[in-house]
Amino acid sequence: MRSVTLGNGLSVISREGKYYVIDEFAKVLLESLDITSNVGELSHILNLPVEGVRSAYKVLEAQLNEADLYSDNLNIPSPLKVHWRITNNCNLKCSHCYVNSGPVNSREDAHINIIGKKISELQVLDVTISGGEALTVSSLDAIIKRFSDVGIGVKIFTNGTLLARFIKNISHVIPRQSLTFEVSIDGLAESHEIIRGNGTFEKTMTGIKAALAAGYQIMTNTVLCKNNYRSIPELYRFLSAIGVQEIQISNLIVAGRATQSMRLNAKEAEWFLDEMRDVVNEEDGAELLYGHLKKDKCVEEYTRISNGGSEVNVGPEKWRCGAGVGKVTVDPDGQVLCCPYLPCSTLGNIKSEPFDEIWSNPKRYKFIVELARKNSGARNCMVTNMSE
Asked: Which of 10, 129, 299, 319 is the most buried (most CB within 10 A)?
């Protein structure tokens, strides 16, 4: 279990995509649980009676369930998470792409490897890699292995069309627990290919099936827009049937090639959420995470819908943006930004500047102050508001 030491007996850990501040005893409990879940064996490792073990883990579970991602005043020595937009190159040219990616002729591998090495040397718990299309990078397997070898968890955002070949190349060298794929799929074949191009649906599905068969974790992400929203209920049924366990629906980011006219209106969004509630509850399928727009203003609230009618709002009362606080973005040129959508939040370049100087840039603290002001009492994305 990778952790970041804060001092005063406290550490930050990453667990199931969330970050927690824990003390030394909690850290020992979690590290022991990674070795075995057998109560008798845990009793021996921890030198506690069986009832003491059960009691300790109940207390720990309650603490983790109630904990924030990180405290307001957490002074961490480096980001907990890096979003690395590894390349602008993409083998597709999707109509809603917010970074305006597409096929480009460039020789990026040399500086990609430099950036990857720099990130691996930070006290980072997780790295998400996106593009462009990350799987077009020829050295990606070696980069992931470097991260995996030092205990950094990796998630790759991909359109899935190159995934089957990539899985074949990495399945014998990259541990399953170290790597997760988030695959973009925007409807069944007709809807998906209106957005992403002819022949892309079958390639993406072949990639998803290959990753599942090899034992890797798969989450799918669908960008909700007027072209596809009526086909998504059937897409949910289809993905659940092939074994996808978590399906995420995201709202369109109005940037790049995406325009405001592609977004759902309030009536369409209400129809969609009602339909998805019914579909999830009637199917013995995947969990659905849906970020939907509130009617009064352009902010998202997340709803997690599970089979059997369980619906939990995980929106503004718990969500906090980590941009600049515990997370940064690194772009293909090595520029480090608090927020990938705000060029004004650029802090420096990881290729040429020491990261401790980048992290201590006064612009980061100014950004955090503004972020806290914008999010006082409610979830409120500065980027989403600017797009209105």
From this structure: 129
